[in-house]
Design a protein that fits this description.
32% of the residues lie in helices and 22% in strands. 26% of the residues are buried. It contains 2 helices and 4 strands; from the N terminus they run ββββαα. With 132 residues, the protein is an alpha+beta fold. α1 packs antiparallel against α2. Strands 1-2-3-4 form a 4-stranded antiparallel β-sheet, covered by helices on one side. The chain has one domain.
């Protein structure tokens, strides 16, 4: 098995990640979950882009490692869920950002349902898509 290799700064750039799970909502919000496969576990990170900006990072040698890929994904889905709920509750969030947060929450709920049926594409390259 080949492992992801960090750059000279200890960051796993997108091309070095074993997988990138990407979703774009109907209104244009985008989320990426980066997964670097290291010798000691899976290093995940989350990147979100809204209509008016974004936040996120790439995995690094300082990322919390997970024994399984699914644990790493689940952690990032929880982070995404918390971020979306934060924006929906914030008085200063625009209506569009609240709408986009709601769409991303719907996607998170769908991912949780799909995990029950093991719907990940098997053997697909980076930027894997769900098969069901």
């Amino acid at each position: 098995m080949s492992y992801s290799q960090p750059n000279e700064h200890g960051v796993y750039v997108e091309e070095q990640c074993a997988e990138v799970i990407r979703h774009v909502s109907v209104s244009g919000a985008e989320v990426k979950i980066f997964l670097a496969n290291t010798e000691n576990g899976w290093a995940p990170s989350l990147w979100i882009r809204y209509c008016d900006g974004g936040r996120g990072s790439l995995p690094s040698i300082n990322s919390t490692l997970h024994l399984t890929k699914q644990e790493a994904i689940d952690e990032q889905l929880l982070r995404l869920e918390a971020t979306c709920n934060e924006f929906i509750a914030a008085w200063h969030s625009s209506d569009l950002r609240k709408t986009q947060s709601g769409e991303l929450l719907d996607w998170v709920a769908l991912q949780k349902q799909m995990d029950l049926f093991d719907c990940w594409s098997i053997g697909a390259p980076a930027n894997k898509e769900r098969r069901c």
